[in-house]
Amino acid sequence: MARFEKDRRGSASDRRDNGRSGREDLRNGGADRREQRNRDRRENRPIPERPRRNPDELTEQDVAMDENTSKIEGRNAVIEAFRAGKAVDKVFILDGSQDGPMSTIRREAKAHGSLMKFVTKERLDQLSDTGHHQGVIAYIAAYEYAEVEDILQKAKDKGEAPFVFILDEIEDPHNLGAIIRTANLAGAHGVIIPKNRAVGLTPTVARASAGALNYTPVARVTNIGKTIEDLKKEGLWFVCADMGGTKMYDLDLTGPIGLVIGNEGDGVSRLVKEKCDYIASIPMKGDIDSLNASVAAGVLAFEIVRQRN
To answer: Fewer CB atoms inside 10 A, N or C side of the chain?
Structure first.
C-alpha cells in the first residue's frame, strides 16, 4: 500500500513536471512566432492574415438544401429559365459582376422573388458541374409553385371553408414532404411556405410527400406575417402550435382556419405568433416535451378534421 502511494505521488510529480515543460514549450513557441513576425516586418515580407469567413459565401446548409434541386449554369441558360416561367429557388452570382447579362439576371430574380446569393468564383467552381458557369448558377424547384389565390379558389370550388397550412421556416425537406402529405390527407386546400430560410420544393420533398405534392398546391410568399394579415381579411383565423398554449381540445377549431407550424428547432417565430389568434398545445404525458414538426402538424391537423366534421 505504501509503495502504491509513493508511486502515485511520483506519477503526480511527473505530471507536474510535464505540465511545466509543456507550458514552457508553448511560451517558447509563442516567442519563436513573435520573433519570426518581427523578422518578416524588418525584411518587408507580407504577414499572413488570419482567414475570415465571407458572409456572402455559401453555408453548408445552403449546399445541402440545393443538392436536391435541378441545376442550371451559364448566363443565357439562367435568363431563359426565368423567361420560360421556371420556378427558380436560388441564384448564386459572382460577387462584383455588373455587366448587362448579370444585371438582367438580378432584375429577373428580384421580379420572380428568387433568393440571390453573391459568392466568390471559388465557391461557384465548387458547385459547378460543367466548369463553365460564367459566374452564375441557378437552382430550379422540382415542382411549380401555386399562388395563395389558387388555394382559396380550391376551397371555393369545393364549397368548403378554407383550411390552410402555413409553415414558418421549415428547413428539413423530409419534414416539409411529410407535412404536405398530412395536409392532403386532412383535406387542407393548400400549404404556404416562405421564400427565405426554408426548404423549397425539391425532389426529396416530392418523395417524402408520397405523391401528395401532385394534388396539394404549395404557395411561396415573401412575408408570412403579412400573408396571415391578408388571409384574415378573407375571413380566416389562425392557430399556431406551441407548448405554452391552450390545450387543443379546449379550442374551437372549426370554420375558415390556418394552421401555423414552426421551425424544427425554434418553433413559431415571435412575430408570426403575434399574428395568430390562438396558440394550441398538444397534451403530452411522456418524459420529453416536444414533437417533431411534421408529427405536431399531423396531430393538430386531425383535431381540426375531427371538429370540422
So the answer is: N
219: amino acid identity, one letter: A
Question: 3-class SS at 168?
Answer: coil
Of 74, 81, 119, the closest CA to residue 101 belongs to 74
Cα 153 to Cα 158: distance, rounded to the nearest angstrom: 9
Which one-letter amino acid corresponds to residue 111? A
159 plus 133 within the same structural domain: no
Mean pLDDT of the chain: 81
Q: 289 pLDDT exceeds 60?
A: yes
Domain of residue 181: give its range: 148-308
DSSP secondary structure of 250-262: GS---SSEEEEE-
Residue 29 lies in a domain: no
Task: Tell me if 118 sits within 8 A of 160, measured CB to CB.
Answer: no
pLDDT of residue 119: 94
Q: Where are the alpha helices (DSSP H) in the chain?
A: 2-42, 60-66, 75-83, 100-112, 121-127, 148-158, 173-185, 203-208, 224-232, 270-275, 293-308
- Among the listed ranges 56-70, 88-102, 203-217, which one has the minimum average pLDDT value? 56-70
CB 198 within 8 A of CB 170: yes
Higher-scoring residue by pLDDT: 198, 13:
198
Name which of 166-175, 185-194, 197-206, 241-250 the model is least confident about.
197-206
> Under a CB-based contact definition with an 8 Å cutoff, are residues 92 and 123 in contact?
yes
Q: How far apart are CA 112 and CA 101, in angstroms?
A: 16
Q: Which residue type sits at 275?
A: K
Split into its structural domains, the chain has a count of 2
Enter the C-alpha cell of residue 66.
440545393
Q: In terms of domains, do 203 and 222 share one?
A: yes
Amino acid letter, 162: P
Q: Give the CATH number for residue 115.
A: 3.30.1330.30
* Cα–Cα dist 189/219, whole Å: 11
